[in-house]
Amino acid sequence: RKEVEQDPGPFNVPEGATVAFNCTYSNSASQSFFWYRQDCRKEPKLLMSVYSSGNEDGRFTAQLNRASQYISLLIRDSKLSDSATYLCVVNGAAGNKLTFGGGTRVLVKP
Amino acid sequence: ETGVTQSPTHLIKTRGQQVTLRCSSQSGHNTVSWYQQALGQGPQFIFQYYREEENGRGNFPPRFSGLQFPNYSSELNVNALELDDSALYLCASSLVGTSSYNEQFFGPGTRLTVL
């Protein structure tokens, strides 16, 4: 079983719609959680950290469920520019390695 | 932009050769991590350097080695290159010790092709 698992998609989303997707992680001792965005052939860019109480950044909302060991990302009012691969990332210990999921591809269409 | 730079941008090598990739961390950051990203997959952790010492290593063979310099820049060295080493190599810098989240910021990567 992979440490961090994501639905690879693609999620085909009409412009203006809402899309949500999850990732699951296997290490219950994981301490930090992130969503990164990666455009084709570019480096991953930090989208948002995920806090225990859940957090929102504009049109993006992230949730953490420690009991079920999953993280979610919701995108409201999708824009064409939201088309990207979204990487779920877990950090097991302060300052140590990030473990990435395989990514969920989102395609926003007019 | 993150302020993390990597060189070279692209590189083509043949099997058995050796390669050195370089990374300059973001100003003020003290930690550099290296990742390998094969096509269609998420990045895989190779190792991390903190205060010029290896601070954690992923499931990579010893022919993957690294260095961190006093200015916090870093090198990744790969010996005896194999075809499967073809990938995007990413370095990420962070500032360990300031928060529990330790956000990492990535450079643009070096795309290595092994023929």
Multimeric state = heterodimer
Largest interface: A-B, 23 and 31 residues
Name the overall outline of chain A: globular
Instruction: State the order of secondary-structure elements of chain B, H for helix, E for strand.
Output: EEEEEEEEEEE
Largest sheet of chain B: 7 strands, mixed
Integer-rounded radius of gyration of chain A: 13 Å
Number of helix segments of chain B?
0
Question: What can you see in these coordinates?
Answer:
The complex is a heterodimer of chains A (110) and B (115). Chain A has no helices and eleven strands. In chain A, a hairpin with a 6-residue loop joins strand 4 (32-38) and strand 5 (45-50). Chain A has strands at 4-6, 11-14, 19-25, 32-38, 45-50, 55-57, 60-65, 70-75, 84-91, 98-100, 104-109. With 110 residues, chain A is mainly β. In chain A, the strands form two sheets. In chain A, strands 2, 4, 5, 9, 10 and 11 form a six-stranded mixed beta sheet that branches. Chain A is 0% helix and 54% strand. Chain A starts with a strand and ends with a strand. Chain B contains no helices and eleven strands. Chain B has strands at 5-7, 10-13, 19-24, 31-37, 44-50, 53-57, 64-68, 74-78, 87-94, 105-106, 110-114. In chain B, a hairpin with a 2-residue loop joins strand 5 (44-50) and strand 6 (53-57). Chain B starts with a strand and ends with a strand.
